């Protein structure tokens, strides 16, 4: 058997070397400004190392999350959310996690705040990040800012694709995608789907590829939030929920009220402190031009305002002395 497998192995190695020398995979679509890669459990993730987004260079750690120094502070916190929580278009000192760490230190609770937010992530992906990374950090505080992606209409539904990823054939396919020969074969077989497997905006539902639906239906959104709170309670971890803001909502827009009401109801049921980011901006007297880089991504001034109100809310709730969410 060994002598039979040896020629086959040499042949496959030769084919792969040939493809690496004479064929390069087509470049990623220019619309995807972050260096994303497919991920076997999270759908997509940031590429470890140095990546460029919005003209800035970010460091991505081995867990495929935005790198944050571990100073060994007495308390440890973790943020989950999408690009607005990740800090799209911002240097590290302007991000929410950095401002939270600064504000908590000034309040007498030195805290390392790690970033578990990734552009485009929903509560479905946030739960996976917590299972794979977050809970292992021995957390004292979880900050949940996940809403925009769950509410978004797209050409895929997170739970459908994540169930699809658990199929053995998908896991094998993901492993083989690291080889140029396999990539070429897939593109030759499916020339009409050249971007299959790429990040958000290019993912297609395996069942209904053209049907636009909420990425996470509101009932699932409520269950996912509640599941995070139960997991936090089981581990003795405090929670702060953050309602994100954008230009339209700052002016009184109500297009997403259903998802905001859902977050508020879950927070109330579990007796978890909740901060409205728009309230923080109004209190800081920041208008849309000062508050946002574009339609939705906060500036450093906004993140500073969010952090100040968040720490005040945490102090009023008794964190870190009082118990975590009600079980």
Describe the model:
The chain has 327 residues and is of the alpha/beta class. The protein is 43% helix and 14% strand. It has helices at 2-22, 83-86, 96-106, 123-132, 148-151, 158-165, 168-176, 180-189, 218-235, 247-250, 257-269, 277-283, 288-291, 300-317; strands at 36-39, 43-46, 49-53, 56-60, 75-80, 111-115, 141-144, 153-154, 213-214, 238-243, 274-276. Strands 6-5-7-10-11 form a 5-stranded parallel sheet, sandwiched between helices. Strand 3 and strand 4 (56-60) form a beta hairpin. The chain is elongated and about 70 Å long. Mean pLDDT is 86; it is low at 197-202.
Q: Poorly predicted ranges (pLDDT <50, ≥5 residues)? A: 197-202
Give the strand line-up of the largest sheet: 6-5-7-10-11
Biggest sheet layout? 5 strands, parallel
Shape summary: elongated
Q: Please give the radius of gyration in angstroms.
A: 21 Å
| Distance between the amino and carboxyl termini | 57 Å
Number of helices: 14
Question: Which structural class do you get from the secondary structure elements?
Answer: alpha/beta
- In terms of DSSP E residues, the strand content is 5-15%
Average pLDDT works out at: 86
What's this entry about, in short?
The chain has helices spanning 2-22, 83-86, 96-106, 123-132, 148-151, 158-165, 168-176, 180-189, 218-235, 247-250, 257-269, 277-283, 288-291, 300-317; strands at 36-39, 43-46, 49-53, 56-60, 75-80, 111-115, 141-144, 153-154, 213-214, 238-243, 274-276. The protein is α/β, with parallel strands linked by helices and 327 residues long. Strands 6-5-7-10-11 form a five-stranded parallel β-sheet, with helices on both faces. It has a two-stranded antiparallel sheet with strand order 1-2.
């Amino acid at each position: 058997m060994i002598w039979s497998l040896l020629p086959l192995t040499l042949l496959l190695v030769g084919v792969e070397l040939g493809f690496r020398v004479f064929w390069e995979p087509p470049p990623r679509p220019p619309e995807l400004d972050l260096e994303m890669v497919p991920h076997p459990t999270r759908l997509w993730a940031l590429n470890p190392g140095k990546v460029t987004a919005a003209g800035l260079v970010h460091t991505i750690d081995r867990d495929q999350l935005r790198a944050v120094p571990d100073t060994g502070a007495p308390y440890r916190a973790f943020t989950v959310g999408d690009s607005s929580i990740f800090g799209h278009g911002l240097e590290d000192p302007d991000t929410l996690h950095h401002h939270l760490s600064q504000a908590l230190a000034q309040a007498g609770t030195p805290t390392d705040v790690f970033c578990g937010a990734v552009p485009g992530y929903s509560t479905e992906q946030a739960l996976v990040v917590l299972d794979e990374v977050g809970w292992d950090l021995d957390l004292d505080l979880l900050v949940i800012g996940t809403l925009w992606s769950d509410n978004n209409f797209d050409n895929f539904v997170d739970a459908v694709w994540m169930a699809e990823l658990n199929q053995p054939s998908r896991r094998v396919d993901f492993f083989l995608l690291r080889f140029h020969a396999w990539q070429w074969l897939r593109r030759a077989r499916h020339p009409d789907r050249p971007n299959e497997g790429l990040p958000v905006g290019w993912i297609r539902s395996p069942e209904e590829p053209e049907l636009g639906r909420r990425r996470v239906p509101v009932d699932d959104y409520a269950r996912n939030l509640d599941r995070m709170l139960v997991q936090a309670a089981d581990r003795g971890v405090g929670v702060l929920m953050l309602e994100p803001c954008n230009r339209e909502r700052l002016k009184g827009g109500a297009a997403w009220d259903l998802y905001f009401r859902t977050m508020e109801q879950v927070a109330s049921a579990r007796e978890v402190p909740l901060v409205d980011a728009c309230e923080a901006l109004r209190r800081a007297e920041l208008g849309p031009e000062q508050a946002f880089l574009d339609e939705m991504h906060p500036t450093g001034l906004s993140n500073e305002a969010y952090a100040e109100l968040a720490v005040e809310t945490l102090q009023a709730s008794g964190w870190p002395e009082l118990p975590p969410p009600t079980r």
